[in-house]
Amino acid sequence: MWDNPRFRNWIAVARACHLVQQELARRLKTLDLKTPHLDVLVNLVRTPGISQHDLARKLFVGRSNMTMLLPQLEKRGLVERRPDADDRRVLRLHLTPQGETLAGEAIAIQAGIVNDIMSLSSDEECELVGDAMRRIANHLLTSQTASGDEERDQG
Fold first, then answer.
1. Neighbours of 132 (CB within 10 A)
2. Which residues contact 105 (CB under 8 A, 6 or more apart)?
3. Could you tell me the pTM of the whole model?
4. pLDDT (tens digit, 9 = 90+) per residue, 70-86?
5. Consecutive H or E run containing 95
6. Domain spans of the chain?
C-alpha cells in the first residue's frame, strides 16, 4: 500500500491540508476565532443574506453545528439574523460592521498562509493541484448525490 503512488500522494495531500488547518487555527487565535467561525464569516462576505439552511449545506454541516456557531458570533456582535422579506420562517444572515472588519482581518491571515505555501510551486503546478482537487471534489459530490438518489429510491 505505501509504495502505491496514489495512496502515498494522497496521504501527502491530507497531511498538508491538516498542517495548514493547524497553522490557520493557531493564527486565528489572535483574533479569538476558530476555523468554523472563519468559514461562516467568509461565506457571509461572499454571500450576504444567505439563509441558515443554505449556509449549513454549503459548509457541509448539520443544523446542530449552525445552532452552536451562530449564537457565538451573534453574542460577539459579528453576525445578525434577519427575517426574510418574503418568508418569515427563513432567517437571513448578515455581517455587522464589526463582523465585516474582523472577517477582513481573518481573511488576510488565511490569504497570507495560502500565498506563503503556494509560493513554493510554479503557477503551472498550482493550476495542476487545483484542477486535480476540483475533479476529486466533483467526483465525490456526484457520488454522494447518486448514492442519496439510490437511498431515496429504495426507501
1. 12
2. 31
3. 0.83
4. 999 999 999 999 998 89
5. strand 91-95
6. 5-120, 122-155
